[in-house]
Structure formats: structure tokens, C-alpha cells
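Loading example: each entry is read as two labelled lines plus one structure line.
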Amino acid sequence: MSNKKILIIEDEEEIIIALKLRLTSSGFNNISVATDGETGWNKILDEKPDLIILDLIIPKIDGYEVCKRVKESSSTKHIPVIIVSAKGMVKDLDKALSLGANDYLIKPYDWKLLLEKINKYI
Amino acid sequence: MSYFNSFLVVDDDIDVIELMTSLLAEKNTKLLTARSGKEALEVLKKDPSIDLVITDIRMPDMDGIALLKEIKKNTPNIEVIIMTAYTSLSYAISAVNLGAERYIQKPFQLNEMQLAIKQVEDKLKLRKENQSLIEKLEHAKQELENKNEKLNQLDKLKDEFISTVSHELRTPLTIMKEFVSILLDKISGGLTEAQEEHLHAVQNNIERLALLINDLLDITKIESGKLNLAKTETDLGSLIKDVVSSFETPARKKEITLTFDSPSFPPVIIDPGRIVQVITNLIGNAIKFTPEKGSIGISAEKNNDYIEISVADTGIGINSGDFEKIFNKFEQINRLAGSGAKGTGLGLAISKRLVELHGGSIRVESPVTPDGKGSRFTFSLPLITNIPEL
């Protein structure tokens, strides 16, 4: 059981359900969700999560911008960001990593691999 | 049919003008006359259709040589025949040097003049034919350029379409994959053996779809020249070993013996992810097409400046007529009649291009066993470090 807070920023309802189910059954009970980039960014500032699972194509502010803000602000740049996106081109990966994302998984992701990465950064 | 539009005969001698008029009458071409060089220039200015000027040299106002100079200066395409009673060769030479087509000495024989006109006509004819050929060529070139541009646009559209569709497919696929794996991991409750088996079938086919999307994206990237290799010094032996061990479970299921022999060789400069993709494709195919209790042998050896990696199986083999076809896109020859083992039809096409991007090549042999079965895929990778960037 972990009381570490994980923030999911993802606009697909069913992916959120699946992620929450997986996270809670892996012992993470402190989960917060935002379905657009703006709400996500506000939650990052308010809640200071221990890790962010971030989609790239999300409404209002896209994932790249959220990632950029997290990594540019001194109060949030320590928070690990794992990108989980359907964008699978090398240039997407390069862009996200150059903005400071800690890791990148292409959808459809493998849960075991995602869990491994979460455990690595938390 | 005459290739002339109109003639201009220039002479201060009215007899010559009359003679020429009767001579040229049969040509069915407009005939203009002038009695001096100056008058000739006036006529030329008024009538741009003139394509042949036949002129005397010695005339009042402006002589024939001066007229020739003027004509060639402003309208080099107008042909000029010089005629004169002068016997001096230097006149003839200077006239020809100034661009006169012919030099005819007076008094001339009629057939001599006819021949001269005929030669100019032939020249005009050739020039017109060339002109029309050039125009046709220009037209064809323009058409080709337009078509090429259209093709480029279509190609770009196709790339964008495939890329968008692939991304759009990934989201529903993610949801399906995740919930099936949640079910299989029994997070939401127990499953009967049959349910579990059915869900595994769903899971396998989700994987297949995911692979197809990746393959489609890869082939699109390769064909539009956008696939860049991330080359790094790699221990090929241990890379192959890892791929081989990832196939141990599926091999064991079909009781297939999987072996890998490799002498040691220096590290190679490759994109490890892409070479793993090639070897995975070849071993995956071998397992698919090898019946139970067969064997698959993987080897890697140095051959001059290349390392050759082979995957040989004891499957049904491939007809030599299909050797080239199997590397084409979406080409699946019927290697196992009635078998459900199907891939995307892109694996070998991608593998071939990935190997070629590395500066190597891929080939197939079949049969390879003494009893006429099996096939062997061999691909080479250059050992040199300075592989040209593609």
C-alpha cells in the first residue's frame, strides 16, 4: 500500500477507469484525475502529486505544454512525468523527452511495463 | 506544300525580279520585291512573315552585304541567298560568314537557284520540325511535372492519413487491451477455463492489430524516407540471444527445437531496436511455418566485411518462384494451406528495407533439408563503421 499521489491527465474515460483499477489493485489508493490540460495543470499546482501520468492529446492545454510547465517551474520540476500517448513517432518521443518528460509509453501500453516505470520513479 | 510563308527578292535589275517572280510562282508563296537595300528593310519591317530574302549585292542606297548584316542582326531566322555578278571570292566568303545561306553567281542557271531555294526550304522544314518537337517535349515535361506534383500531394495525404488513422486506432485498442488484461489478471473476479481461453484469443488478436498498426506506420515512414536509424555500437551476439530466448515459450508449445550458434565477432554499428525487429520477424515466421517437433537454427557468422545472420527452419519451404514475391508488401504466399497463422503481410517487406537501410541485404533459400523441406533466411550487416547515412 502506498500513499503516494498519482495524477492521471487523460481525456478517455475508459482509459482512466482501467488505469485507476490497475493502480488501486497495485496498492496506489491516492489517485487524482484531470480530463484536460488546464485542470491538470491546476491540480499539479494545488495537489503537488508524486507522479504524473500524462496523455499528449488532451483538451485546452496539450500534454507537451503541461509537461513543459511542470519542468520549467521550480516548485514542480522534481515531479516525474510519464507520457502515455497514442502518438508513436520518434519526433513525438523526442519532443516530449526534450521538454523534460521522464519516460514515454506508446498506446496500447503494457501495464506491467507502466507499473515498472511508476515504481522506478516513486 | 511549301514551308515558306513569303519571299522577298531584292534587286535593282527589273529583269532579275521578273525572272525570279516567274521562277517562284510555282511555289505558291507570297512574293514581295524591293529595288534597294533600304526599300527591302522597309518591306521586312511591314511584313514579318518573310522567311527568305534573295538579294543582289550591288544596289543603290544600301548594298546586299549591308542588308544581310541588318537582317542577321535583327531577325537571324530569316534566310538569305546572295546573288551577284561579282566574281570575287572574298564577297562570297564574307556573305557566308555573315550568315547567308547560299551564294549564287549571276548569271545563274534556273536549276541552280531552284536547288538553292530547295536547300533553304529543307533547312526551314527541319527547323520547324525541331521547333514542334521541342514544343511537344516542353508540353510533355510540363505534364509530367504536374503529375509528379499531384503524386507528391497524394503521397503526403496518404502518409498523413495513415498516421492519423493509426493514432486514432490506438486509443480504442488500448481500452480493449487493458480491460482484457484486467479480466485475465482476475482483478474483477475469477474466470472459467473456457472464458480464460477465449479472452486469450481476444488478447492475441489485439496484439496482432497493434502490430499491424506499427507495421503500417513503419512502412509508411520507410517509403517516405522518414525512417531514421538510431545507430549505436552493439553486441550483436547478445542481442540475438535475447531475441531467441523471447521465443522459447512459443517454440516449446510446438515442441520446436530452437538453437543459436555464434562465434564471437567485433561489435557492429546498428540500430539495435530495428535489428531486433528483423530477427523477431524472421524467427516469428519460422515458428509460424514450422510444424510441431521441427527445429529452427539461428546462426551468425563473419563473411568478409559482413556479418551474416541466418534463420533456418524445417517447415514446408518456399517455391523458388516466390523468392522475390515474399518481400513485397501484403504478399502472403500460401506456405501452410488451411493454417490460421497469418501475419500482417508487411513483416518481410519491412525487414528487407530495414536491412537495406543498414547497408546490408536479405535473401532466402529453400529447400534446406536433405528431404526437401525448410527455408533459410539470411541477412547481412556490414562490419565497417562508416555506413553511409540513408
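The helical segments of chain A are 13-25, 37-47, 63-72, 90-98, 111-121.
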